[in-house]
Amino acid sequence: MTSALPAPQLRATEPTPTPVLEELTRSVAARFPATVADLCRLVRIPSVSWDAFDEQHVLRSADAVAKIAAELGVFDRVEISRAHQAGSEVMGQPAVLATRAARNGKPTVMLYAHHDVQPPGDEAAWDSPPFEPTVRGERLYGRGAADDKAGVMTHFASIRTLMDAAGADFDLGLVLFIEGEEEFGSRSFGNFLEQHRAAMQADAIVVADSLNWNLVTPALTVALRGNVTFRLTVSTLDHPSHSGMFGGAVPDAMLATIALLATLHTPDGSVAVPGLTSTPSGTPEYSVDTLREESGLLAGVTPIGTGTILSRLWFQPAITVTGIDAPSVANASNTLAAAVTVRISARVAPGQTASSAWAAIEQHLIQNAPFGAHLKFDDVDLGNPFLVDTGGPAVAEAKQSMRDAWGVDAVETGIGGSIPFISTLVDVFPQAEILVTGVEDPDSRAHSPNESLHLGVFQRSILTEAVLLTRLNGASSHNR
């Protein structure tokens, strides 16, 4: 096992020496055009990991990532590996794993990102083709440009910068883990970790898959909501019936579904499911106007819920109906629908397990089924929330590195979304500190049309990680 953090030459509260920081800054800037070019080559590969898309693109993406890793020349081993999805014989998508053993008692850092991407969605909603990286102003547009191929390239660029400062024979241990199915639920993640547990041991894990506070302020994510997603089918008839003949006496499935879904929230939009919990916590200032701007909330439409805006986004549960299978308007006939299927996505506040949240939601729906409607639940997916212990030395090192690279203190933030695999990392590697960083900003629109990366944020994020790696390598004693 490697040594405890931090590296012995540097106290976590000391700024990086000016000569070292200047050298790293010059290296990042000099290499930045090539880094962006590498990122563009990755973005051009439509590596959507969902079942309905061609997995050959994900394989090509893994090959491209592994090639960059091998060309660095610092890893003892680079491989593309797959594991079975949980409880299945189906193989997961290919991940890239590269390892370098620590030397002279230095720590080992795992660098995580993912090379798969979301589907492009409606391509007509894009201002430029989703898989043709396009620079407009200070932003690079393209699917995966921010989430998360920029995270992949942040790791590569920071390693190159470390090599410029300390040479290729540095002492820091590295585990590079670039997953291939994060956007499809990380279904083989647990089996992959078990398969490679020995090779992936680390003192700290940097997860480059989050966002910054704004364009000029970095953020360290310290709280993540968990998730419960499932498919619900509501049935009231064994076949559709004529709405004129039986409407008014026979409850159709759409009526039952609407009535049932309405029980999930109070009139002000707060979640109304008994057993779902919140986590009291302070939050930074964040106005309704900022929420309106960043979310696209229409004029006159009010926010929902109670408490501060960020407490609603970070520390309270949320329930959203994300899809409905029902007759379309174009195909609507005068019939009572026999069954309606919906997809429900719930966010679980830190402090509650996903399994207990799922039990509460399932019980609530069963108890509130109107007219005796029949309910069927399937395709259930659970992910636990996550709270960072911010008292560890790796967190202190990361915050100092952000301060050095950005010139301002980092904001400790929560994220309303979920990254369920992080709780799995905690379970498998309980001794490792988790650092959730990222290259996105509030305008990145990850998962949406016109996803983009702010190039200035990208460059500062690379410098942050380069500073962190250099500090952990003991570079404070380096003086040229």
Overview of this structure, please?
- There is one protein chain.
- The chain is α+β, with helices and mostly antiparallel strands.
- It has twelve helices and 18 strands.
- It has a six-stranded mixed β-sheet with strand order 1-2-6-3-7-17, sandwiched between helices. Strands 11-13-9-14 form a four-stranded antiparallel β-sheet. A three-stranded antiparallel β-sheet has the order 4-5-18.
- Helix 1 (18-43) packs across helix 12.
- It is elongated.
What is this entry, summarized?
Helix content is 31%, strand content 22%.
Helix-strand blueprint:
Layout: H1 18-43, H2 55-72, E1 77-81, E2 95-100, E3 108-114, E4 134-136, E5 139-141, H3 149-166, E6 173-179, H4 189-195, E7 204-211, E8 219-224, E9 226-235, E10 241-242, H5 243-246, H6 253-262, H7 288-295, H8 309-314, E11 318-325, E12 335-336, E13 339-348, H9 354-367, E14 374-383, E15 386-387, H10 393-406, E16 411-415, H11 421-428, E17 433-440, E18 452-454, H12 455-472
Helix pairs in contact: 1-3, 1-12, 2-3, 3-12, 4-11, 10-12
Count of distinct strands? 18
Q: How many independent structural domains?
A: 2
Q: Give me the CATH superfamily of the largest domain.
A: Zn peptidases
Mean pLDDT: 93
CATH topology of the largest domain: Aminopeptidase
Strand order of the largest sheet: 1-2-6-3-7-17
Helices and strands: which structural class? alpha+beta
Largest sheet: 6 strands, mixed
Q: What CATH first level of the largest domain would be assigned?
A: Alpha Beta
Tally of individual helices: 12
Uncertain runs are 1-11, 475-480
